[in-house]
């Protein structure tokens, strides 16, 4: 049904097998490095949970999990939204104006992330009240508050890491980003053993391992970009960095609202799960940690489709745009089959790695069907929102839709099930599924009324706002209309 709705009446054209193979290869080159990067980040999260279980009692695992959720929700949401600005603009800018525009886009996204970071620290003034909402166990509150403050610097490092990895992929160095991402979990494991087990630094050692690992990776990525600056094609006119600044702020803010709303639902589930007892509360924390590596294909697919759709819009190719959407849906089916199989095979050993409580493990296993469906709906949501609507410049619609679905459907459902019926973890995650389905339906309906030709013109206008940032590059895969437009504006 979704494929038929997304099919445009004036773009019906059969694609041959050769074109499909080439498209799959281009998709795979964008998809694989992001998946490996996200798996690397997810494995680090699992290692954090495992290392925290070595410190002492189960309440430490719960406290660390709560602190991580609050950190991501308060700090990482808005700056991650500015990361999607890069996804939205980079495909069209690279196609139309070459490497110089991409270089300056990276600099602008970096500066905006750094400027937004102090503003995101404001909620820390009330962090003590936020932590107290997670149940009544004072030991959990103390651990969560301490670790939340110790880890406050890490989200900006994750943002820079994500941005630099994407930049290397776009500029044709996916293997370089892969070689940086693969050793990261091993380094984190070694630092965790050194600081926590060997030196007995406790929570301070756990936070230090996270920070040092993230900082080293960012330093390595920056060094690679400097070393390969000639091959990458680094050209940046720093005097014009503020050009198009307001448009990027608007795009990033709406994308940040979407991420903030999603993590708001996640945070609310942790708070409300306390009403169902300590077993359910710990199960929800561990499920969130263990499931993070399985979100790798979700983010990878969204990024790959966003790049391909942006390139199609930059070239003014309406047929290619439609085909990229269909290609994303086709790969969504394949990825869900693979992710479901891997999740079912690995969830039990991963759960036993994070806790020795058999009741918690049983509750985690009982929630498996809900998590499998949730991962599928989340992947479709990411594909349509980040992969298609974001390059089309529809961040405002995406942000409002997400806020509405979560705060009018998701959170009230979770609250009623936990407060009234003391529901288990599986019921909580089924509420997440319902929220995602509402969002997906809204996105499909919005795409049905999209005028592709008008959106291509709008894409050219958004790219034209960056014209003073980088002149059109005749050696790139250039859209001729953009060059004519630039020459006219330059007199």
Describe the protein.
- The chain is mainly α.
- Helix content is 81%, strand content 0%.
- The protein contains 21 helices and no strands.
- It is globular.
- The termini are far apart.
- 52% of the residues are buried.
Which terms summarize this structure?
single chain; 491 residues; mainly alpha; 81% helix; 0% strand
**Mean pLDDT metric:** 78
Main β sheet profile: none
**How many β-strand stretches?**
0
- Note poorly predicted spans: 8-12, 467-480
> What is the first-to-last residue Cα distance?
49 Å
- Share in helix: over 70%
Oligomer: single chain
The succession of helices and strands, N to C, reads HHHHHHHHHHHHHHHHHHHHH
Beta percentage is under 5%
Number of helical elements: 21
Helix-strand category: mainly alpha
Query: What is the CA-based Rg, rounded?
Result: 22 Å
Can you describe this structure in just a few lines?
This protein has helices at residues 2-6, 17-55, 58-97, 99-120, 127-132, 138-150, 154-170, 174-181, 184-198, 203-227, 229-232, 245-273, 278-291, 296-315, 318-354, 358-366, 368-389, 395-421, 425-448, 452-464, 480-489.
Topology:
Blueprint: H1 2-6, H2 17-55, H3 58-97, H4 99-120, H5 127-132, H6 138-150, H7 154-170, H8 174-181, H9 184-198, H10 203-227, H11 229-232, H12 245-273, H13 278-291, H14 296-315, H15 318-354, H16 358-366, H17 368-389, H18 395-421, H19 425-448, H20 452-464, H21 480-489
Helix pairs in contact: 2-3, 2-7, 2-8, 2-9, 2-13, 2-14, 2-15, 3-4, 3-6, 3-7, 3-12, 3-13, 3-14, 3-20, 4-7, 6-10, 7-8, 7-10, 8-10, 9-10, 12-13, 12-18, 13-15, 13-16, 14-15, 14-17, 15-16, 15-17, 17-19, 18-19
């Amino acid at each position: 049904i979704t494929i038929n709705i997304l099919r445009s009446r004036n773009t019906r054209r059969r694609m041959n097998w050769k074109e499909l193979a080439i498209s799959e290869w281009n998709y795979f080159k964008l998809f694989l490095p992001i998946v490996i990067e996200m798996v690397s980040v997810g494995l680090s999260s699992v290692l954090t949970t495992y290392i925290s279980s070595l410190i002492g009692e189960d309440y430490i695992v719960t406290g660390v999990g709560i602190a991580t959720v609050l950190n991501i929700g308060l700090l990482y949401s808005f700056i991650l939204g500015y990361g999607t600005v890069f996804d939205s603009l980079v495909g069209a800018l690279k196609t139309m104006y070459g490497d110089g525009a991409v270089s300056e886009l990276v600099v602008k996204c970096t500066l905006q992330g750094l400027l937004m970071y102090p503003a995101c620290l404001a909620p820390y003034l009330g962090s003590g009240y936020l932590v107290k909402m997670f149940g009544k166990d004072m030991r959990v509150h103390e651990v969560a508050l301490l670790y939340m403050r110790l880890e406050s610097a890490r989200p900006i490092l994750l943002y820079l890491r994500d941005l630099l990895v994407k930049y290397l992929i776009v500029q044709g160095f996916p293997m370089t980003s892969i070689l940086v991402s693969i050793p990261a979990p091993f380094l984190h494991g070694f630092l965790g053993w050194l600081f926590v087990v060997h030196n007995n630094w406790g929570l301070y050692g756990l936070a230090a391992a996270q920070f040092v690992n993230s900082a080293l990776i960012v330093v390595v990525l920056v060094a690679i970009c400097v070393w390969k600056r000639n091959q990458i094609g680094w050209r940046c006119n720093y005097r014009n960095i503020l050009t198009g600044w307001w448009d990027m702020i608007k795009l990033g803010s709406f994308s940040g609202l979407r991420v903030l709303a999603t993590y708001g639902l996640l945070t609310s589930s942790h708070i409300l799960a306390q009403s169902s007892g300590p077993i359910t509360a710990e199960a929800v924390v561990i499920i969130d940690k263990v499931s993070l590596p399985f979100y790798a294909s979700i983010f990878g697919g969204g990024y790959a489709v966003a790049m391909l759709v942006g390139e199609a819009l930059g070239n003014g190719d309406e047929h290619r745009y439609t085909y990229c959407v269909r290609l994303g849906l086709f790969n969504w089916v394949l990825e869900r089959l693979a992710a479901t199989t891997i999740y079912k095979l690995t969830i039990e050993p991963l759960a036993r790695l994070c806790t020795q409580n058999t009741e918690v493990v049983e509750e985690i296993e009982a929630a498996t069907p809900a998590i499998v469906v949730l991962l599928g709906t989340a992947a479709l949501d990411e594909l349509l929102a980040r992969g298609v609507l974001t390059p089309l410049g529809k961040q405002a619609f995406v942000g409002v839709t997400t806020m509405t679905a979560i705060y009018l459907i998701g959170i009230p459902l979770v609250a009623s099930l936990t407060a009234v019926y003391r529901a288990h973890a599986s019921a909580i995650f089924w509420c997440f599924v319902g929220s995602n389905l509402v969002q997906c339906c809204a996105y499909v309906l919005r795409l049905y009324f999209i005028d592709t030709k008008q959106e291509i013109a709008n894409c050219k206008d958004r790219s034209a706002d960056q014209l003073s940032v980088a002149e059109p590059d005749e050696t790139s895969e250039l859209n001729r209309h953009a060059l004519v437009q630039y020459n006219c504006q330059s007199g």
